[in-house]
Structures are given as structure tokens and as C-alpha cells.
Amino acid sequence: MKITCLTILYLFLNQSVMNSELVVTYQGEPITSVSRAEFMVPMFDEPVIDEDKYIQFIKEFDQEIYQEPVDATLDKNGVIVPGQVGYKLHRQKFKELFYAFIFKNEPARIEAPILKIHPNVDSELLANIRTQQIGQYITYFNTNNKERSHNISLSAEAINNHVVFPGKTFSFNKVVGKRTKEKGYMPAPEIVKGEVSEGIGGGICQVSSTLFNAVDRAGAQIMQRYSHSKRVPYVPPGRDATVSWYGPDFTFKNNFNQPLLIRSKTLGGKVIIEIYSSDMVDYTPRKVPDASKELPKEIQLSNN
Q1: Would residue 211 be called left, alpha or beta, if left means φ above 0 and alpha means ψ between -120 and 50 degrees?
Q2: Residue 73 CB neighbours (<10 A)
Q3: Residue range of the domain that includes 18
Q4: Residue-wise pLDDT tens digits, 176-207
Q5: d(C-alpha 244, C-alpha 227), whole Å
Q6: Are residues 104 and 142 in the same domain?
Q7: How far is Cα 212 from Cα 216, in angstroms, rounded to an integer?
Q8: Of 284, 260, 264, which is closest to residue 208 (Cα–Cα)?
Q9: How far apart are CA 200 and CA 183, in angstroms?
Q10: pTM to 2 decimals?
Q11: Does residue 86 share a domain with residue 186?
């Protein structure tokens, strides 16, 4: 009888220990709690952690903590908008705290350890690389086509303020992303395999073509560029750069000794793209023919 009572008492105390909680706080506020029993492998005399459960838990918890850093940018007036530091979970420190909770067999409360993630582009860097314009190109479009004009403006904004570091390659498709209705892109004329049709995002090739001429004029290394299967009216012959999410991309490499800053905007039927860098940039500009200032005629389903 005495042995039975001791056994029941032991099991009760052991169960209480196994079910003790770990409360995790972030900036002083509780954000999650877990019990020891959730992560223990049963049928072992000594505590053994279920690694698969822990890995899944830490992935989800890290996503909850994660805050993406924000690069510094220039607003429409050229004023610097400071960047923001991001945060992520310090996984190694958290693991040490978590394992201590498991093996100490008592409830615990810990503050989630975090690591700062500094933005790639801070105010100081941006101030340094906006000083010298090394390339510029302007193309013209007909604002009467509202859908095409809208797509042009969206894609121009997507590449605006993008910084390309020395030795790095810029990909138009990667930076702009997939052109979808969810992102606000509209159906507009585009050229596909020599035929003119209507597709989501029609018009963005004018932005990629304007960018190509701007960076080519600056002397950047063009890595990948394809021309349309039909002539387009917004750039001189052979000076276009067609892009498609499932097809061609336009890419260039920053072969200079300083970062490059892309400034891109639309204004009154013009696509204006400027390339900036620091005063210490070592570059050799190229001669690139200007686009015609004559407003392109609206072609019925025949230009992108």
C-alpha cells in the first residue's frame, strides 16, 4: 500500500513537471507559450527532445518575430527617407534557453533573443551615391491608352530607388516581379512571338527598354537583352529590351567601383530613368541615340 501511494505521488509530480509551461515574451509582452510535454519523446526515462517538433516550432516562431529591414529611399522631391532596421530571432541563443527549460524541469519565462538586420541601403550610402548622374534616357508614350499608361507607371515605380552594388547583377523580372492583376497590372497590347495581343502588364517593355538605354549610356555591362520580334515605336531600331515573366529578361551588371542608384518615374507621357552614383565612380559613358520626341501613335494591338 505504501509503495502504491509513493508510485502515484511520483507519477503525479512527474506529470506536473512534464506539463510545466515556457512563456516566451517579446518586448516584454507574452507572444507564445508551450508545455514541456509537447516536445518530449515518450517512453524514455531521461528527457529526450523531439527534434522534428522543435524545428517546426522554431520556423513558425521565427516568422512571427521576423521584421524585414527597409532601405532608405528618395521621395519625389529628392529628400532622403531613412531606412528601418529589421529583426529576426537569434536561433542559437533561443535554443540554449529552450533546452535549459526542458532539462531544468520547472516553469520558465524568457524574453525572445533577437538579432538586428540592418538595411542594405542606409541614409549615408544613399546620400553618397545620388550625387552624380552618369546615365539618363527618356521615352514617350500616349497617355490616351489608360491601361498601358498605368502598367508603365507601376513598373517604373517598381525599379525606382533600386541600388545595384558593385559586381552585382540587376534583373528586371526579379525586381519588378510577376505582373498580375493582384499587383494592379491591367490588360494592354503586347507583342508575343511576332503577334500582337492583349496581355496583363502590356507596356512594361517600354520601361525595360528605357532602362536598357540609360544603363548602356552609363557604360554598364549588359548581360541579357532581347529585341522584340516587331519594331516598337518608342525607341530607335535595335534599342529595345523585351521582357516577359516566363520568357526573356533584361539584366545588367554593375561593373563599376561604386554602387548605382536607379531613379525612375513617369511624367506627362514620358518615362524618365536616371542612373546615379558617387563622385568617385570610374565610368566610361557610351553614345546612345535619343528616342524620338514625337508622340507614338496608338497602334491597335500592335505595340508593347
Answers
A1: alpha
A2: 18
A3: 2-117
A4: 999 989 999 988 766 544 444 456 778 899 99
A5: 12
A6: no
A7: 6
A8: 264
A9: 10
A10: 0.81
A11: no
